[in-house]
Description:
With 518 residues, this protein is mainly β. It has helices spanning 161-167, 178-181, 443-449, 502-505, and strands at 24-25, 30-41, 50-55, 61-67, 72-78, 105-108, 139-142, 149-155, 170-176, 191-201, 207-208, 233-236, 239-240, 243-245, 250-257, 264-268, 274-279, 282-290, 293-295, 300-306, 314-319, 338-343, 371-383, 389-393, 411-418, 424-428, 433-440, 471-474, 478-484, 493-499, 510-515. The chain is built from 4 helices and 31 strands.
Amino acid sequence: MRLQRRLTPFVDPLPIPGVLKPISRKPRFTFYVVRMMETFQKLHRDLPPTRIWGYEGKYPGPTIEVWRNEPVRVLWLNQLPKRHFLPVDQTIHGARGNPEVRTVVHAHGVVSPPDSDGHPDAWFTRGFRETGPFFQRRIYRYPNTQRAATLWYHDHALGITRLNIYAGLAGFYLIRDGEELSLNLPRGKFEIPLLIQDRSFNRDGSLFYPRRPQPASPGLPDPSIVPEFFGDTILVNGKVWPFLSVEPRKYRFRLLNGSNSRFYTLRLSSGQPFIQIGTDGGLMARPVRVQSLTLGPAERADVILDFSNFKGKTITMTNSAPAPYPDGDPVNPRTTGLVMQFRVNRPLSSRDTSSIPRRLSALPPTPLSRVRRVRNLSLVESNDRFGRLLLLLENRRWSDPITTRPRLGSFELWQLINTTPDTHPIHIHEVHFRILNRQPFDVNHFNRTGKLRFTGAPVPPSPDERGLKDTVRANPGQVTRIIPHFGLTSFTGEFVWHCHILEHEDWEMMRPYRIVRG
Length: 518
Ligand SMILES: [Cu+2]
């Protein structure tokens, strides 16, 4: 039975995930072992413990913290039950004929060799008894040669990612470096990661995930994937609407939208700005002050909040993003419109000597003149054999042959042509990119002729997007232009790009691509 009453917000303190301890730390590499386990965890004061799947049995998983140029190896172990506790649709890609519980880990935003990237078909079952067709190695290698950034690791198994992440398989992966350290940003207990996700619950405290779309049209399989999922409850770091007691000083928060489908437009009830210092791919050139921050699934924002003038105040972080985004149902101000609360009720434990430098970092150049190749990549709606909505990239399916082969070292211009009515957060593995601009186009004309006819001027990215990205919001009726640099990696081989709405990537809105020798 679905839980109908609303849980009381702001009764539980915010949990802060612990930092994962390595098995060994040698000059050649630091070695970690991470087990995926089923456990029960209290997600709210008034809920019985909830069955979750967590890395090291925790939801969110422990934070992996590494230094730039510190080679890391991780043995990811599946110790999960044979059966899934959420409804598994056997008709979608990757599911039929394969074991029900499959896992593979993608370190999102981490540049890694293709055999360690968490290819969706590199899945494995408990004890590696069965493995997918792309499985190559048990121990993943992460060179961490990239700049400092807020990254995350999560499940990525084909056709079941939405259920595995929903069950709890997600955690932070932070890369630090000397440049960032020299900036004197708030750190230690004043630096806190915030994983924002939506969930729904059954009356017994278990996670609710729809078995079929409602109403279910006749002939639909049971269970059947839903076109998107929106929970009625917001969790931060695995706790329903938590609160955090803070000192009147500056804090650094690493915001991550780890939801299946939900976007967030965040604001603070105090009216204070988010002082944003970083995007998906690390520090921005300089801080920007924004009154609201929109994050699609998988997007991150590194922000500083200054509570020094708010002693004794209670500040609520709210959400106003419709679901689906941008033209869906408005949020309920008493439920999905709430995220968490900051209570400025702690005495100052020491003087706040942290600073917000005017200059943060030099972003790698993105020379348009060096773009070797322009790709038109469309996002389109279709229907599957059951009449269900099917979203596709380039009008192709996951299993269709590779059509995108960028050269190692090159810059490309990708034009994401969104013909659908929704925003899709598009994630490219292995690279980071800058957003060039977005431009509205005539969708009907494009659908008829395959040609772009623009209906307005290009619009530059908003201030909160002016850094390195690995996930970009491709808005409906717009061409979103991004410049991926295939020289931020030194690896060739097969990777993927996909929509990060998990219900979309699980049902064909994902394509393989291959980085080839330059
Ligand atoms: Cu999508």
